[in-house]
Write a structure and sequence with these properties.
heterodimer; A: mainly alpha; Rna Polymerase Sigma Factor, Chain: A; Arc Repressor Mutant, subunit A; B: mainly alpha; 8 helices; sigma factor activity (chain A); RNA polymerase sigma factor (chain A); RNA_pol_sigma_r2 (chain A); DNA-binding (chain A); transcription (chain A)
Amino acid sequence: MNQTERGNKHSELIKGVLMKITKNKSDEELMQHVQEGAEWAFNALYERYSQRILYFMYKMLRQDEAKAQDLLQDVFLKIVEAPEKFDVKRSFKTWIFTVAANSCKNYFRAQKGGFLALEQAPELSTAPALIQVNSAAFKKQLNNALDELSYVYKEAFVLKYKEGLSLQEIALVMDCPLGTVKSRLSSATKLLGKRLAPFKASLFVD
Amino acid sequence: MEIHDLLEAKAFEELNAVEQAFVLEQMSLEAYENARKAIVLSQSLFELESAQIQPKANASNKALLALRAKNKAAAPRQKTAWVAALFAYKIPAWQAVAALLLVFFFVRGLGVVQQDQTIIIANESLRDTVFMKEYITQIKELPADTVVKVVYRDSNKKEKAAQRVFASNHTGQPSKGNVNVKPKAVVQEFEDVLQYYNNAASAPASKDTFLQLMSDATYF
């Protein structure tokens, strides 16, 4: 066994021990430790949320992975720089998604002209020609349909059907009333439904 | 019941009668099916894409470095903060009083223990000494309300009277019994004492002053 392998084994072992320690701790408890400067707690939170936040931002930034990676670093940097801003009595999940959503909004605001009007429901392009449901072309078509949704519709849709947040949690993230969230979700599903009507419902198979 | 949850969870055929009625109140069957299809396909796309997109291996480095720098900067502050917190810590007055009483009785208890230890040491050093103790061997029962009067008497009264007589004789004139004491020797001794006093004292004294001092310091 060479030194690199031993190093990898060692780091795996440490990772395993940390996993055991942090397994039973809630996000809020971990965040409390981060506020006290605990690196292990930060790593645990990063393990739990980095992938989810990255994908959420990837979708919100119209599949711009490089930008999503940059903003992911910024989100966790914000957590480290001002952890005291988080109230441990509240939900960490809604807080971190709020930080991520705000980062995306700020990015679009900085990119003048690249931001769709928040509440404006766009005119969807006409139904596509016959495309196989499990093809790459269909994935692209679906992504286009999602991107054609207004920013807030897409945000509500992704938070609900990808991240599994409750309507109340989405209302907190989007900083709007519950009724508004319901209305945005209804509009998003309705628009997407219309757009995808010509296709037969089928799951992607790779 | 929430339409968005139903859309995600069940196809229209899988809904029970109540749920179907609830859905049909809000949208048509076709709209439900289309919306559900959009959700199912989107979720499938999300799963597929999210498995392919992973954070970069060093993505957390920036934040970790910032955290370490923050910890390093906060370390000396934490020490002073600890001391400050110690002094700033407030407790109720009754707790403070209770703590003081506790300390008082604890210290008092320590004193008792030390006293006991001293007694033990004294006993050890006097182990060859014969102690006599008087024990009460007879108990006399007295009727209730009896007044017991204890009278203390000076047993050496006669001896003290004799000493006083001797002192008065000695100061007045030399006793005839002291025939062996030569006046010159007495004078010489007096001179020596005066000399010693003058050497020792900061201010020299005359013979009269010295005699006055002697008479003040001596009981005649």
